[in-house]
Amino acid sequence: MYTFSQLLIRNAILGLLFSLISAVLMIFMFRLYVSDKQEQQQQVVTTLAEQIISHQDVKTLSQVLRKKNAYQRITITTQAGEQLYHFTEPGSALLSGIISPETTEISLPALDTIITMQVTSDKEANLAIQLILLYVAATAFFIIVAGVASTRRYKAFFNAINWQIKKDLSLILPDEKNTQAQSDLDLFDIPDLKAGLQEIKSLIDEQKQDSVELEREAYTEPLTGLANRNQFIKHFEQKIHQSDKKVFGVLLITRCSELQTINQVRGYNEGDDYIKNVANIMKGEIARYQGGELYRLNSSDFASLLPNTTLQQAEKYAQELTLKFNDFQQAADLDSVAYSGLVAFDEKKPLGEILALADTGISVAQTQRVNAWYSQKEQDILDNASAGYGNQNWRQEIENVIENQRVSLLVQSIQPNTRNSKVYGEVLARFLNASDELLPTASFIAMAEKLDKITAIDQIIISKAISEIKQKNLQANHFGINISPRSIHDQQFVIWLERKLLREPDIAPHIVFEITEYGLQQNIKTSKRFIEMLHRVGARLTVERFGVGLTSFKFFRDLKPDFIKMDSSYTRDIDEDKNNQYFIRVMVDLAHRLSISVLAESVETLEEKHTLEKLFVDGCQGFYIGKPKPM
């Protein structure tokens, strides 16, 4: 069924098509008329030409023809092509080119003459244009008149329908403005309309509920129930940057320093509990500040927004957090809990700059004491002269660790699943500051990478591990040592390590070096040379975090690692995840065909361990298997 507007458009198009067809027919008829006219003129010219005795009378003939003013072209030539007379006057009317007939040649052999002629069609063309315009105007007028007449009828009809719909809607969605409509009688009794509107109401209610739920999910972090980063950015832009009033306050970013370590060593469930405990501590403290807002920005960062608060007042909040974090650290037996960076803000300062200032504050706080906070007071902290302050403190701490060998080593065992499985214990490094306090491991490694000190750190860990193996007579055991990707692609480091292992022929076969899958992929050539060197001196290699990248087994067949350690994303809740079970089973089959042992990390429950054993995984590591112990 056509809508009213579609009907009008259809009628207009039909009218235009009819006008176009009529115009074509008119042009065709006028062309026929002009063609007949040219044939008549041809007969006249032939009759006049027969009266010509010689070429001298051609001029007289041309003058006679010109006086008739009925030609737009006349050319008189001899049979040999000599031109005796020529006249042309192109048609000036718009349709002359279409209506004008083809030129006609009249041959007079007796006079050795050829006359080429074409009659003019300007009058006919102008008349055709006038008739076409008149016809189009009449058609348009008829369409407009018909449309106006139809519009009035349709308008009255649609007004009645709209009134009825409005009345029925008022019964479904009561409104004070619709009370009058409810009391009037129905103009139309449309049961299907009422049923449809009722269904629409149900859909609207459902959509509203879904919208509320989706908005809640979009702006809420599920683990802690706090607003997420999206809500933080939205709030900051709307309430602070776009505010017409003077706005000030303090932003405090709190970074959970032990999340990565807890996830790797104790498991993700413990990591979730750790985050929830930190969130609960911060919820309790921020509730004391009017208008205070707490957000979880990412896996390890929380943001405390304290409006209308000075930096001095916010420092009291940060100090209270430190005290609570210290208590939680002792209760949970952690190396640290969280570090905070504070920065003042107003409506003019960009959010990116504020976050950068707070992040720098965290870097500084991590070099001071456990669970410390640092307040950024410099306005130009992002300039080169002052932005390096946090990095400089880290540089001093890292150099102090390197110079004074401030590294302690722990070992977390990997339990073999069969008697024939040959596994090892993973060495975990912890770093101490000048006060013999533990530095956050993840932050320390990240800053060492950033400051190009990670190779020196790897050398210290390897040297200390070999030294302790010798001093404590641990040659009967096997130990896994992590190496950063940068080190294995550093030629000087590879030379140093080869010489180090060659000097320790009794210990080298007891060491397994762990390298991430991503690290090996960065440069396959140097990775292959590094692995060949390890095998040459008797050491072995584990590719850890396997499954995160897109490495093919051809890659492993060429590199020939000794172990692969499945990424924790595949082993977590493996007893409930059929897809991961299938993936690991396939990986185990392929790896065993290449004589590669398969290990699983982050094993947290007995059910996970039993499932992995059924999948023929060679060894399991995790908080359930064993906690890290001093080496």
Characterization of the model:
This protein is α/β, with parallel strands linked by helices and 631 residues long. The protein folds into four domains: 1-187, no CATH class; 188-218; 227-387, Alpha-Beta Plaits, CATH 3.30.70; 402-630, TIM Barrel (Alpha-Beta Barrel). The chain has 23 helices and 21 strands. A hairpin with a 4-residue loop joins strand 7 (293-296) and strand 8 (301-307). Helix 4 (122-172) packs across helix 6, helix 11 packs parallel to helix 13 and helix 17 runs parallel beside helix 19 (524-537). The radius of gyration is 46 Å and the shape is elongated. Residues 176-183 and 379-389 have low confidence and may be disordered.
